[in-house]
Amino acid sequence: MDVAVKVIPKAKMTTAIAIEDVRREVRILRALTGHRNLVHFYDAYEDEDNVYVVMELCKGGELLERILSRGGKYTEEEAKAVMVQILRIVSYCHLQGVVHRDLKPENFLFTSNDEHSPLKAIDFGLSDYVKPDEKLNDIVGSAYYVAPEVLHRSYGTEADMWSVGVIAYIILSGSRPFWARTESGIFRAILKIDPSFDEAAWTTSSSDSIDFVKSLLNKDYRKRLTAAQALCHPWLAGHHDVKIPLDMAIYKLVKVYIHSSSLRKAALGALVKTLTIPQLAYLKEQFTLLGPGKNGCISLQNFKTALAVYSTDAMMDSRVFEFVNTVSCLQYRKMDFEEFCAAAISVHQLEGIQSWEQHARHGYEFFEKDGNRPIVINELASVISWKLFLELS
User: Fold this and answer.
1) Taking the model in full, what pTM does it have?
2) What digits encode the pLDDT tens for the residues 250-276?
3) Catalytic residue from among 2, 49, 102, 220
4) Which residue ranges traverse the bilayer (predicted)?
């Protein structure tokens, strides 16, 4: 059997941090191996001079090489197949509480030269564990793919989604969204400049593909799509290989909802009534994955059981279960689909779409029709961040 061996010289492991970095990489690979879009990990060994990480040998070359062999860009259908595979492994990592931190075309390999060869993520040397309610602060990664919040030293799994957006931009257009001659210049562009979709390469692109990329390259990480949400995006709708995974983002949103005021809960409930069926598709998938009972409701146990299906040692190391246990209030009550939607909706993400103004106006109308007490617009805006209402008042 042919294998690939990553050799890590011990001479470079001169600090406790460097040693722990290698141990963490091995732990993550060992925990996550088995996913079809992750390079298979066999084992790790060491002698006096080196650490040897033995993995599956991928003979099809880098994603970057294949992009270049196609003249610098993919067709939309080819790009969809690639992005679905990337999003599958990224969503799996994020559910486990693992952030890759160095996603780029060079870190995805094809298993063979076959046109439809599976794509595998490699190089978890910069990866780390991150609890859903915590932030990392060290600046790591490759300059062209670093998210704005990484440069601000406060980030989570959303930073990976920015990198996925950069990859999608490159695959579809054949150029980078941010460019400069120096690393500091690249960082300035990432922080200050919006990616352009005016080049000739984008003139033949579908509006859905452009919206997909824009949804990932949003400088506000709160408005950026998660990997599971990206798989639900209209651009990928209908692709034969799409399977929507459980999303840790809903756990975070539900926790915030549970501890919210009754006013905020009512406002969110009104806002949900403005959503279209396609917009509700992601929430419906997530609710189904949580396994509601015959009464159509879910409880804390549903959240725990659904997560346990995907549990690995990485999930233990990242303390994801510890976070889920803090959603303790659900233990004493049930939540139907309508309330789940109110709990799991992201107002920040809605604010980032073109139809936000329409949702906000109709949401306020529903809020009044539902018999809620008369309130001033400023009060409603303050509990749900509806900035539009402040402009209308």
Assistant:
1) 0.91
2) 999 998 898 888 888 888 888 888 888
3) 102
4) none
